[in-house]
Amino acid sequence: MYDGLKGFRDFYPGEQSARRQVTDAIEDAAGRYGFREIATPALERTEMYVDKSGEEIVDELYAFEDKGGREVSLTPELTPTVARMVVAKGQELSKPIKWMSTRPFWRYEQVQQGRFREFYQTNIDIFGSSAPEADAEVLAVAADALTDLGLTADDFEFRVSHRDILGGLVRSLAADPETVDTEAAIRAVDKRAKVDDGEYFGLLSDAGLDRATAREFDDLITDVETVDDLDAVAEAGGADVEGAVENLRNVLAAADDLGAGEFCDVSLTTARGLDYYTGVVFECFDSTGEVSRSVFGGGRYDDLIESFDGQPTPAVGVAPGHAPLQLLCQRAGVWPEESLSTDYYVLSVGETRAKAAEIASGLRDLGHVVEGDVADRSFGAQLGYADSINAETVIVVGERDLANGEVTVKDMASGDETTAPVEEFPPESGRPTYEDYE
Amino acid sequence: MYDGLKGFRDFYPGEQSARRQVTDAIEDAAGRYGFREIATPALERTEMYVDKSGEEIVDELYAFEDKGGREVSLTPELTPTVARMVVAKGQELSKPIKWMSTRPFWRYEQVQQGRFREFYQTNIDIFGSSAPEADAEVLAVAADALTDLGLTADDFEFRVSHRDILGGLVRSLAADPETVDTEAAIRAVDKRAKVDDGEYFGLLSDAGLDRATAREFDDLITDVETVDDLDAVAEAGGADVEGAVENLRNVLAAADDLGAGEFCDVSLTTARGLDYYTGVVFECFDSTGEVSRSVFGGGRYDDLIESFDGQPTPAVGVAPGHAPLQLLCQRAGVWPEESLSTDYYVLSVGETRAKAAEIASGLRDLGHVVEGDVADRSFGAQLGYADSINAETVIVVGERDLANGEVTVKDMASGDETTAPVEEFPPESGRPTYEDYE
């Protein structure tokens, strides 16, 4: 009778159990690095996005006026909110601040494969460090999360770039550095793989690079395939670019120290779309190319906190989006099985409900997942239900068995069953199965 | 510079770690009964609430028109959404359906202690059973969750009532059952503790009960303090009430079988405000009365799925709200400590970053929470930070130690330190501490 909204998804238990495993893997990886969970509001003042996010995001806002006359928006991304939170606590927070959280965000955009209007991300950020080790840690957390999910270096790669290399090159190559729009040139690089050559060079031209310079710039950035190739770029770009190249090298070396080096490729054609990025930026891609769009990305945004009137606070982060990650995991065959699991079903037949409830409670006290009959159903219906929830063991509590001081322990995989003395069932610890009583 | 919105909260890591423990306790308790996690959208069509939720909820909706011209609302409660999901899958879902989920909801209401405009609930529901065991299981899950949190029978009580007892009494006592508005009378009972006598009896009068009948009705429901007291009610109410009394007794007996009996009190002055409730309803209260409002509630809503054009599907559920539960836990002194915990801090001094990173990675591979220096800081600053994150053990990786083939293992509680051979650190398993090397 009522439909859900386009681009908004209902997750039923099978799919949700797979999603939960993936979320847990990402959060556990971040947790091992000491990232701490925070929780944040779904609504913020619209002006925060108008001021701080790019135009693209503002066009897609779920914005409205609340009953108190405030202009509010469903949060389209987390970064402005965490920036607000860092500024609100100011000096109270010991640096570096390492936060993570998983939650939905909302953008009114075209719904397509792996892209929805309500989409889930785990945001992982470090505030208060400009050291390359911070960038490297963010890369290492992302790599650990993906390898924990079963993905390998054959499945994914982080294309790592540096905005100051791109910006520095643009300024040093331009005939007049004053007239070139560095941000626009970087946005052009971000669009490079998504538009045709004509449009790309048109965008570079709009940014203030003449045709020959644009070509030179593009040759320089596309020629870089390894760290060693950065020498040519440093040479062409002057002191600013040299510094950025060194920073990028240090980040990659630190990532290597943390075991994430094998997943990192230098790629100066990676730029990231959001305006607030500075320094190192990166995107995760499917190595086979089957998932064609970027799976997720991250990078430095050293100026954002200050732009919120906070103390200058360098920052770096990554935000795996769960829907594109699901596409990658499915392509690689490591998406968790979408099925339920149940340790026990306690089946009651005849006037044995009280005893069955007691046994179920006893098994739950041992920490197991236990279902019992809550619908007054027949033996066959209960057994069918036990099968539908993938119960490993069924405990049959029947009147005759109970009269003999026994319950039946049935292994659902084999169908084998045996009896156990009811006064000792369940035992005080452990996970009693057919094997224990056969 | 930017403020968060009134009634919307930012949760920083300390408080969030306590909230996470509480959420996990509730979800684990439900998980042991075989409730399966689902995930649901934050936006639904407004008409669903206008049609199905009470007027009170509709007045508080965050409703707006989206960019596609749809009238949408931030979800103020979960029940209509799960009803929609049950109907959407229809016969595909094996019954009983047992679902749970934790997430925020939104209502534009007056902000006060324990009540916010963005509030978190764990919804726990069973669809497809009218048996008393289903009601009892919902009570037992709630009781297990609260006792797992450390609350006892001295801390909380479930006041259990039955809408058909209340409705049946009203109809049997009324001079003319045709002219009495049963729903309005039940809403009056729900308001009983919140308004003065005059207003309460006025509401009963509006519902169609004359003064003497209203007094008789009120005497009957307030006289019930135990299960045995229900006899008088059954007698006064006729066949319908007798059936409802028997159902309530069966629910309480089944709750007793599951170990939840000690938390349940019969209380016919409990009614629940939402119109869609039928049958058994209950509310959880602080036994000491210090938290004065209902902590959370639940009950049967047997007609809702059918009203969504689904097959007739009885349902029962409970939805602990996290903010009022926090007040109860804090009153009882069982709210988890709001602090961070960290297994290791790996402190790097001098040119030892690569080795320190390797050791940190090794400890993380063992599953531990490990932080290292990501901000290029001094020995003292690193030790101060290690203290601020409550690191249990600090591994100092210094140049001199490394030259001797050692690292320093420092216990942060005692300040004691010793050395461990670096080629064996970390070991292949376990959780190495000062004691292992002293």
Automatic annotation (TrEMBL), chains A, B:
InterPro entries: aa-tRNA-synth_II (IPR006195), aa-tRNA-synth_II/BPL/LPL (IPR045864), Anticodon-bd (IPR004154), Anticodon-bd_dom_sf (IPR036621), His-tRNA-ligase (IPR015807), HisRS-like_core (IPR041715), HisRS/HisZ (IPR004516), HisRS_anticodon (IPR033656). The keyword Ligase applies. CDD domains: HisRS-like_core (cd00773), HisRS_anticodon (cd00859). It is an enzyme of class 6 (ligase). Residues 32-362 form the Aminoacyl-transfer RNA synthetases class-II family profile domain. Residues 411-438 are annotated as: Disordered. HAMAP family: His_tRNA_synth. This is Histidine--tRNA ligase. It comes from Halorubrum tibetense. The lineage of its organism: Archaea, Methanobacteriati, Methanobacteriota, Stenosarchaea group, Halobacteria.
